[in-house]
Structure formats: structure tokens, C-alpha cells
Amino acid sequence: MTTLTLKEKFKRVAEEWSSAATGSRLHAKSPEDVVITMAIRSPMCKAKKGGYKDMRSDELLTSMFKATLGQIQIDPALIEDICVGTVLPTRAPYEARAAALAAGIPETTPVQTINRLCSSGLMAVTTISNQIRAGQIEIGLAVGVESMTRNPDMGTGYSEEIMAHPVAKDCAQPMGWTSENVAEDFNISREDMDKLAALSFQRASRAQKDGTFATEIVPLEALRVDPATGKRTTVVISEDDGIRHGTTAEALGKIKSAFPQWGAGKTTGGNASQVTDGAAAVLLMTRRKAEELGLKILAKHVTTAVAGLAPRIMGIGPSIAIPMVFKKAGITKDDVDLFEINEAFASMYVYCVNKLDLDIEKVNVNGGAIALGHPLGTTGARQIATGLNALERRGGKVLVTSMCIGLGMGAAAVFVRD
């Protein structure tokens, strides 16, 4: 009989663990799991003319905090940290802290902000999850918010050194340019782009009409300002207002190019994400704490992956980040029941679905950003609310969310429904 060294024993145990059934590991429950007990979103409303057009970004965030307090089912004093993902506000930390206090969150609960552009909502969730996993806190709130209506001036440009660098200078280019680069470099047809864009509208239209979205949406109080008198009133917004019912690929094919100066000009206002205002919130804690408080557990957060790539083709980020998160979680695409991939532009959406060979019946089953909009800081958290809602309705277990990120990055995360 061969006697194994301690090192060899550890190696054998590791090999046995890694070769065990993925399902048993993925779906195993531990008191230390980081779980989600609430995932909600506001209605998504068109920037500058939709439901939140008269609101400042801090007012939108305050309203979302208030709505969240009505949903968390715990004393807000138990929240040990809040992370707000947001991109555009020039005073983001000030707005986040002040909005939390104004909404009724105790001054004993600290607030931080995070900005990784289009993934900021997911980064907020991941930050809170990591704090819980490290034992720093037991309960935390992640929020994603963006008022694209209040998009500030983005500054005066970059330094000469940056603009002289062959790759760094691409960070100064508009996102529409990157969409056309993806379409051009990877031979994505306008027809395929319009086809998936139409599917997004059709699925979102169905989900709105049959009440699917009502489960994930929390109505928000919105301000109205009379342009003649300046009088301020409030209204309640309860539905997305950017979904274009009855959209077809044929109709989208008639829309003119938004960026005819680049590539073949395949990107249009109909096959790109809408410019939208909105917010979302996710409450996380240990499984032990959730059970102690008697809360329903929606899902556990397994892991998140972030990838870097050339800024000029930033849209393909999910095609890199998703395989990375598969590896981290020890799964394959066959283990995934639903995907939420942010539809920043149809060019990247078509590319990622094709590159990963995904079943479109598992991807954005209730529509995506082309139909609902892409408030930059919100999307990463909104996808969790939308994805978990869809997962529960379909009786699925595993959700993967992902998005491309401006400046050349991609992110993806794995969640398992309880």
C-alpha cells in the first residue's frame, strides 16, 4: 500500500472536490453564503421627457431610498453599509450620503459610492457582498442610480500624453464609435442587429402587459414642475415608459444611422440602448442572518468577474467576462438557466450571443436595455432584479448577469436562486 504525503492527500481531496458534480457545489447552502433578500427596481423612464425629467439626480436617489425602506422588511438601523453605484453626478458621495439621510436611513449607517461606468450597479452589489464575505458586515444595501437627464458636462478633454498613446486615446471616443467598430470588425449585419433589437421590444412589451414587471418594480414618487409657474407637485410612476409596443425588425430597418460618420453606420436609435433614468436596489446579508430575521431568501451571490479589453471594441466585454465567471464558479453555459446581458448596442449583443453560442431563449427573456433603457449606474443592479424575477417565474436556478463597460471592460456575475 502506497503511503501518501500530506501534500498529496490535499491534492487528492482538491481533485475529488473539483470533479464532483457541479450542481451539488453550486446549490449547496451554507450559513456563510451571501444571499439576497430583496432585489427591486424603479420604473425605467426616458431621459429629458419621461417620468423623472423634472428631478435632480439626488432627488431620484432620495425617492429610491424611500421606496427601498418600504421593501426591506428590517429595521434600517441594521444596515451596516450602503454602496451606491453611479456614474455621472459630479458630487456623487455628497448626494448619496445626503439622500440616504433625507430618506430616513439612520446617520449611523455609512455610505460609499462606486463608479465603474456601466457595471457600477453590479460593482455596488459585489462590494457589499465582498464586505459580508470578509466578515466586515452582516447586512448591506447596494443601490444603482442614474439620471441621464442630468448628464453633466464631461470635461474639457485629455492630456497630450494620453492623446498621443495609440490605445489610451481611444478612451476619448464616443461609445457609438465603439459600436460601429464591433459591427465592422466582426461583420455584424444591420439585419441581425435590428432583429435582436425588435425581439427586445417585443419581450419587454409582453412582460409589461402580462404584469411580469410588476413583481420587480417598486413605484416611485416623482416630482413635476409646471414650466409656467414653477409649481412643484408629485406623481407616482409605476411603469416603464420607453417600451415601444408593436416594434418589428422591418420598422427598425427604416431608421437612419445614428453614426453615419463611422464604419457602415449600422447603429441607430432603434437598435441601441435608450437614454433613460432609473434606479435599483439589492439587500444582501449572510444566510445565517437572513434566517435569524425570518426573511425570504431570493438567491445567493456566487462570484463576480471583471475583464479588460481594447477600448475601441469595449462592447464585446461580456464575451470575455462570462467565460471568466464560469471558470470562477466552476460551471458551463449548460448549467445556466437565464442570462441577462446588457444591450448597450445591438452590435455587441449580437456578437456576444453568437460568440458564446447562447440559446437566445435563455437570454434577456423579458427584454433588455434596448427596450428598457440603460441608466449607467443602475443597470448592474436592475439586471439582478429583472433576472431573479424571471428565474423564479420559470422555476430556474442559475442566473448570469453581464455587461460591457465603457473604456474597454466587461463584467459578469453568477447568482443561484434558493
TrEMBL record:
SUPFAM superfamilies: Thiolase-like. Residues 34-287 form the Thiolase N-terminal domain. InterPro entries: Thiolase (IPR002155), Thiolase-like (IPR016039), Thiolase-like_sf_Thiolase (IPR050215), Thiolase_acyl_enz_int_AS (IPR020615), Thiolase_C (IPR020617), Thiolase_CS (IPR020613), Thiolase_N (IPR020616). GO terms for biological process: fatty acid beta-oxidation; phenylacetate catabolic process. The active site is at residues 118, 374, 404. Residues 295-416 form the Thiolase C-terminal domain. It catalyses: an acyl-CoA + acetyl-CoA = a 3-oxoacyl-CoA + CoA. Signal peptide: none annotated. Transmembrane segments: none annotated. PROSITE patterns: THIOLASE_1, THIOLASE_2. GO terms for molecular function: acetyl-CoA C-acyltransferase activity. Keywords: Acyltransferase, Transferase. The keyword GTP-binding does not apply. Belongs to the thiolase-like superfamily. Thiolase family. NCBIfam families: AcCoA-C-Actrans (TIGR01930). This is 3-ketoacyl-CoA thiolase. It comes from Serendipita vermifera MAFF 305830.
